[in-house]
């Protein structure tokens, strides 16, 4: 059986070489006793050091794993503590129901009407602060439902409805939001009365075509009321604007839906708690904004080419899941900037937002991810902006404003759409006014230099390498002026000028001859073929531009 034998170098004549006088060593043959040199001692010490480093590395890895475990445990404990603290702020909504039912009964008795309040899903819980601040708003909505919505018993019998009006309050939870839906089976909002009142208060132009959904938003404006007389219940011009302001300050949103003769529905979306909420952080230009999760239907990516097609009007909009979304840049809606994404960006993020019947895809510069943010108040000056609901402080100390994209879409898309359409018309008019120049030269250098010069002066340029190529291009589009060389292969400048001069389609097309042949003989032949100007190579830029301007002016006259 073969055994593994460790081979070590034999240090023969070690005593003589290193001056050792150890007699015991001299008694042994080099094969009988190992002798080590300085190199072997240093290598052994190095190996021991490496082993020690490996051991230390293992200890550090164990400490890191223990630290990660402790951090995970601490995160779980802090999350449980946070959830516990939030639960202490939650109170059942059911305890508010008797008070709301009493408000409905008292208001109905004062107005000689009959109405009942029915609640669904009110066994859920809400943040104590939110609930306390929403009590006056809910009471006012109920008074409005009884006063403006529910008809008199005689009118309800005539409309084949129950004498007692039915007011329903639904409470549901969607992700981190609480949704309160207050609806009645009354006669709905009087769109014509709202339109007349809005025109009387100069809120809308009498000739403007305003959709019903936009007119409904007028009732949320301060001082707006369609009541013919002022009472303690209705007609004071204050109420719904206060409700909308209160909902907005709480970081929520208010939507109105009304069907004539069938009733009105108010949908209030509120955060589950004011302490912490989940939001999307995004960058628009140099600023960072936050949008609550409940305000966004989805996040998608779109290619740069498709985005340009959607925003330029070549396509109706961005299609997703069978729905079409109008494309807008969030920076333009906020009045910050208006620019296309950089050419290096192949995929651009879009936020899909729906507000009423409007579906909008908002383009942003960068999506920073999801964060749990603490909502802070931003003061009266900033909060007066309709689409700002609050702010938060990021980890690096920057302040990010929280946007109400629903209000932004309602208030901003109509005006922005007009600006976009006007910009497209202006761009089209500008494009129609741009001068189209055809440069015909066999030198690629001359073509490039001349094209860049003319494009810098807002001219559209098309190039041809010889006369045959120019004839083919003339069949596609006729330029305003032609810059022509003489010496070219296949068809020279004189032949092309003769073709243009003798063609009915191109007759009168102004030509400027640019060539190194500037002799009197060449000039006379060019003028005989209808050429307007003759310039020599190399030409002066200012001289060329001045001749183009003069020739175009002569052609117009």
Summarize the structure in words.
GO terms for molecular function: protein histidine kinase activity. Its EC number is 2.7.13.3. With 557 residues, the protein is of the alpha/beta class. It folds into three domains: 180 residues, 2-Layer Sandwich (Heat Shock Protein 90), CATH 3.30.565.10; 154 residues, SH3 Domains (SH3 type barrels, Roll); 123 residues, Response regulator (Rossmann fold), CATH 3.40.50.2300. Helix content is 41%, strand content 24%. A hairpin with a 2-residue loop joins strand 8 and strand 9. The longest helix is centred in the N-terminal third of the chain and has 52 residues.
Briefly say what this structure is.
By secondary structure, the protein is an alpha/beta fold. It has helices spanning 14-18, 23-26, 38-89, 97-111, 128-149, 153-158, 191-200, 212-216, 240-249, 304-311, 330-333, 379-383, 405-433, 444-456, 467-474, 493-502, 520-528, 541-556; strands at residues 90-92, 115-120, 125-127, 165-174, 177-184, 253-259, 263-271, 277-284, 287-292, 298-303, 318-320, 323-329, 347-355, 358-363, 366-373, 388-393, 399-403, 435-440, 459-464, 481-484, 511-515, 533-536.
Mean pLDDT: 79
| Beta fraction | 15-25%
Find the structural class using helix and strand composition: alpha/beta
Helix share bin: 40-55%
Characterize the main sheet.
Answer: 5 strands, mixed
CATH superfamily placement of the largest domain: Histidine kinase-like ATPase, C-terminal domain
Based on CA atoms alone, the radius of gyration comes out at: 41 Å
Domain Histidine kinase: 41-274
Function: Involved in the transmission of sensory signals from the chemoreceptors to the flagellar motors. CheA is autophosphorylated; it can transfer its phosphate group to either CheB or CheY.
Protein name: Chemotaxis protein CheA
EC number: 2.7.13.3
